[in-house]
Amino acid sequence: MLRIDNLRVPGLPALSFEVPAQECLAVEGPSGSGKTRLLRAIADLDPAEGYVTLEGVERREVPAPEWRRRVRYASAEPAWWARTAREHLAAAPKLDRLLSALGLDPALLDRPIAELSTGERQRLGLIRAVADEPRVLLLDEPTSALDPQAAALAEELIRFQMLAGRMVVLVSHDAQRVARLAHARLLLAGAARPGTAQSVAA
Fold it and tell me: What CATH architecture applies to the domain 2-199?
């Protein structure tokens, strides 16, 4: 269980909600409503008062690098600090299976990141996010640069992560994808009840 208690992110009301294992919470709201800020605060990338607890352990009880290994934030356009994706993923278990699941040629691992398309980088970024099996995935528009076929493969990979017992917090402007993946929704600015998580049909 990922539990958020009275989390105070700049520009947002105090937030409290839970994400059980094997479930997805969709965070919705207009551009600029704070969706990315919320995900970054949960990952302890940006400062925020309040409590974030994973399976009984509060984020401040864990060294920041270890917390971010357990609670993984993945942006729509991930940053890369090495020349190739392989340098980021050399020790990743089940790498061939993950590449196949997203329809990627293994040869892409050795091409310079700068030569890859936005969609290829986004799919490799999703692989990097899930490869070491974090407990929580904070996914910020993970399919925004993908064509429908590639997006469907990414959706299946996210669904598999939930089946494997992980918790997912998803930001997506694709209402149909949210309807298929989310078990609950968190509505930010402009909603009837801002800052509250509401159950939705799976």
Answer: 3-Layer(aba) Sandwich (3.40)
